[in-house]
Every structure is written in C-alpha cells, then in structure tokens.
Amino acid sequence: MCGIVGFTGTRQAAPILLEGLSKLEYRGYDSAGIAVRDGDGRTEVVKAKGRLKALEEKTDCGLAMKGCCGIGHTRWATHGEPSEANAHPHISDDMDVVAVHNGIIENFREIKEKLSKKGYTFYSQTDTEAVVKLIDYYYKKYNSGPVDAISKAMVRVRGSYALAVMFKDHPGEIYAARKDSPMIIGVENGEAYLASDVPAILKHTRNVYYIGNLELAKLSPEGVEFYNIDGDIIEKEPTEIKWDAESAEKGGYAHFMIKEIHEQPKAVSDTLASAVKDGRIDLSAVGLSDEDIEGIGQIIIVACGSSYHVGISAQYVIEDLARIPVRVELASEFRYRDPILKKDDMVIFISQSGETADTLEALRDVKRRGIRTLAIVNVVGSSIAREADNVFYTLAGPEIAVATTKAYSTQLIVCYLLAVQFAKVRGEIDEERYVSLISELMSLPAKMQRLLDDKERIQWFASKFSNSKDIFFIGRGIDYAICMEGSLKLKEISYIHSEAYAAGELKHGTISLIEDGTLVVGVLTQNDLFEKIISNMVEVKSRGAYLMGLTTYGHYNIEDTVDFTVYTPQTDEHFTPSLAIIPLQLMAYYVSLAKGLDADKPRNLAKSVTVE
Ligand code: AGP
Predict the structure, then answer these.
(1) 607 C-alpha vs ligand 1 centroid, how far in Å?
(2) Does residue 568's CB lie within 6 angstroms of at least one atom of ligand 1?
C-alpha cells in the first residue's frame, strides 16, 4: 500500500526522497508527492498523478527543490480518486504543518466536520487531510510542541496510520507516529531516514529502529528520539539489517519477479540451512520444544493470498505426516467470526510482509484468547513477527515484485520442516523415514534449479496463450493447492481470468465454461490421484479444451492425453508443490511479458495489504 520516505541531514533531500520512493514502487501506487523544507522553514510541495516519472519530471529529478529535510509518499487510493489534489503530502492552510500518511482514518468525516466548524477548509477527499489539520489544530490550541500535538491527534483518531510530519517552526526535524501501519527509522552519520520498508533506506544504512504501536519519534541530523503516547522519552535499540543492498536491485533482470523466481533455490537453501543442523531439524531458535510439539491438539493456519495457499499445501502435509488435525483459514474471514479455539491449539500465521492488516488483527485476536501463536514471516522485525509468541523466519531476502515467488517457496519449506519435525517428535514416522525426508528436502534447491534451467519451453508455450480469455487449473489434493497458487500468479500479473478447481468439482458446474481452445492446466504429481485427474482432463478435452499437463518424471502415459507436457524432477510426494510451482510462476511471468505488461507492478495491487 502507500509508501512513505523521510530524510533529514546535510545533503539535498529531494533526490534522496525520490530514490527512496522508487524502491517502494512495488507496494503499489497511483500518485506521488514530496515536500521539502529549507533551513528557514520554507516549504515546497510537489505532487503528480501516475508514475514516479511524472514527479521526477516536475522536479527535475529533485534538483529543482532546495532543502535538506523532507518527506515523500506514494499513494494507493483508498479515500478519493487518484488525483493530484488527493496525493500526499497534505498541508495545513498556512503550511505550518505538512504530512504524509499510510493507513486509514476511520473517523475522518467526524473530524472534518468538527474542524470545518472551526474554520478549516478541506481541499481533498482524503482521510489524511483531516489528520494533518487536526494536528495543526492541537499544535496551535495548546502550543505545547509537535509531540504533544501529534499525541493528542493519535488519541482522537480511529484507524491505522504511519505518519511523517514536518512543522514550520522546527526546521530539520521530522516527526513520526504509527499504529498498525509499518514504518522504520534508520540513522547513520548525522543523517536520519524514515521509510515504510527496508529497501528504501538499505543503500544508506543498516541500523534500523522499529517504532512500536502508538509510539512517536523525532528525527533530526542529531539522531532520533522516541516517545510514548504520553510524550515520555523511551529507549530503543537498533536492529542490524543483514540483507545485502544488491538483493533489492534488479541485477540485470528485466523485472524483479523473474529475478526473484531465479533466487528461489538459494532462498530455499538458506531457509533449510537455518533449521537443519547435522542432518536433523532443530527448532530451538524458533522456541518450540518437544513438549510444546507433543502438546498440540490442533493446528489452525491463518493467512491471506499466496500465504493462504501455502497453508492449504501445509494442511495436507502436516495432517498426513504428523497426524495433527489442521484447519486453514483466510485471515479476513477468520477475524470476523468467533472461531472455536481450544487451549492446546496452535495457530500459525503465515505472512511475507508481516504487516498484512487482516493477518495481524487475527493474530491479536488469538493472542487475546491466550492461544499459542507461531508466525512464519519474511520481514524481520515486522509487526506479526514481533507480536507472535514464536517466529520462524523465512530467509527469502527482500521480495520486491508484487507477485510473490521466493517468499512463497520459503514458506512452503518452513511448513515442511514443521511437518517432518512434528511427525518425528510425535512418533508418527521412524528414524529412517525422518532421515530420508530431510535428505529429500535438502535436494529440493538443485531440483528447482533444473526447472529454471529449462525455462525456454515454458516461455514459448506462454506466448502462444497470452491472448487467452480464460485459463483453468485443475488438480486434486496437494495438486489442487498448487493450482490455486498457479492460477493466482497468472491472473494477478496477466489480467487473464483464471480459476483453480478441485478436479472432482468440475462436473458440478464449471465444466459448462469450457469452450473450444480453452487452456486447462492439469497438475498431476500424486500417484493415488493420477488416474482420477487424467479422467477429468479427458472430460474437458472432449469439450474442446487444450490441455497442458504438469507432472513428475516417470508418468509418461500422460502424453497420450495432453497437448503439452511439463515434467518436474521426482521428489517425495509431499514436497511436489515446491517444484510444480516453478513452471507455473514462469508461465505467468512470460504471459505477462508477452502482453507487454509490467509484471512487477500489476494494476490495482499492492505488495503489502496494510489496510483491510
Ligand atoms: C501474491 O502474489 C500476492 N501478492 C498476495 O496474495 C500476498 O500473498 C498476500 O497479500 C499476503 O501477503 P503477506 O504474505 O505479506 O501477508
């Protein structure tokens, strides 16, 4: 969702802000703006609808704006259409207060009404303008300084926010506040940075502070000070970010997505290495003891989007290997009912960003009920990682493309590791099976690499179907979970309508959609279900479908039925999603490329959905 950057130091702020915003483009946006303040408190605000390029042109790449302190924003519209008037920064009428905001202010209408009666005028349809003017109102009414004015506004507003605010009387200073929307602060050599996410400041510093919920910060060239909502100073220690700066760059690839697809063997290998020591799985860093594992009554997995699809695969694997009942829930549904949870349940939250609003709120709800929570998260120090009882970090590195690939693959690996270890500790598998499953896991990165080395065939096939109207994915069991992710990947970046169906469900309605030439992708990696899916594929073929079959080496009789076959290397059947997803990711990417679309920035989508 929206991206925020801030800088204060001795260099010109505007070029640094524009560069920072470019690193947050992946979050999704439809307009952008920056505000720069010079040493005398004079402020200049420039905004533009559309891509960052428009803002760069208006500001001569930032060179036209003078001042060493500034804030910037990429806006993903929630209240009010994408337009220059609605773009951030927003200002108070006299330009005393300037701010950018990420999140949603739920009671902005009521605040607007109150302030309108006090003589304030509103020029945009945004919720943000209401907060800016509320801060200005308290600032002038109580005359007790920025921290007091922002704190009073924080008490008054309902909703979520990451705010960066500059005050005319405080040149060189940026004030930040947050509740339920991500924001980090970096400090290095007399300069301070603010951003919604690490890639925006990675080039400048690795020393990052996380602002907690309902906390504030003051940034200046002298450093950073943190406050609680009562205005008391609080101490914080920086965290060192280990991601290397190159991993947040395209490194010669046309898009981050294809680069990240290629990074999967390494990401999976790193994640495996973090938990497999001397051939055995060690969950001590996660904080799960054998007693904890033995005591689990039921597992509930809660997530959104692709992370939810990982949960569906994990359900099959954990239930089959560890014989623990597993339920998988969409966070946005789970949080709005009153789920039945027992004291010995474990709720696993899966999230790349660690900031997805629905997943975070679901986590808080479960914690309030006193049920044990485990988070599988990629972004170190993110809200979900900090608030869960236990965290298992995926080591995917920064994922920039909106469509997840390497984070999805590492999440799967974490789920496999949990399943195998739970199975062993609970006596469901013997030593021989345990050792063989771990060795199979360790062989996955090399097998993933083999699939990547053979990508040209998929590219050719994808270009043939780039004009499709509809594409269907069918499978059963774990293969159905693979289909769900393959279908989401395709639709989110190619804009082709696509659906995943449990193959047995086709005859209950969907088969009526099959027309001459409709592409149907059948996924067949499970021996027991192979014949069943083949039958379903024959059914759609006889209604005119063009068939692609995705199966494991050895199943050569598929070629009599399908028009195009892709084989994945053999592996234990529980782990097939890790291999089968790669051709589907490549297919989605190459369809998008053939259509001339920007796979990294699909329309209407944001990388991290920090509002519900
Ligand atoms: C997948 O390609 C999407 N970008 C999306 O479905 C994503 O997986 C979902 O928004 C969940 O995000 P999270 O893992 O950061 O919580």
Answers:
(1) 7
(2) no
| Segment 6-58, tens digit of pLDDT | 999 999 999 999 999 998 887 778 899 999 998 777 899 999 998 899 999 99
Helix (H) or strand (E) segment spanning residue 190: none
For 334-362, the pLDDT digits (tens) are 989 888 999 999 999 999 999 999 999 99
| Selection from 73, 13, 15, 23 nearest residue 49 by Cα | 73
47 tagged catalytic: no
CA of 360 to the centre of ligand 1 (A): 13
Answer yes or no: 2 catalytic.
Answer: yes
Q: How far is the CA of 317 from the centre of ligand 1 (A)?
A: 21
Looking at residue 1, its pLDDT comes to 67
**Does the C-beta of 405 come closer than 6 Å to ligand 1?**
no
Nearest residue (CA) to ligand 1, atom 5:
305
Q: Specify the pTM.
A: 0.77
- The residue-averaged pLDDT of 50-76 equals 92
Query: Which DSSP string do the residues of 456-510 spell out, in sequence order?
Result: HHHHHHHHHTTT-SEEEEEESTHHHHHHHHHHHHHHHHH--EEEEEEGGGGGGTG
Mutating to test ligand 1, I would choose from 310, 356, 402 the residue with most ligand atoms within 8 A of its C-beta, which is 356
- pLDDT tier at 380, thresholds 50, 70, 90: confident
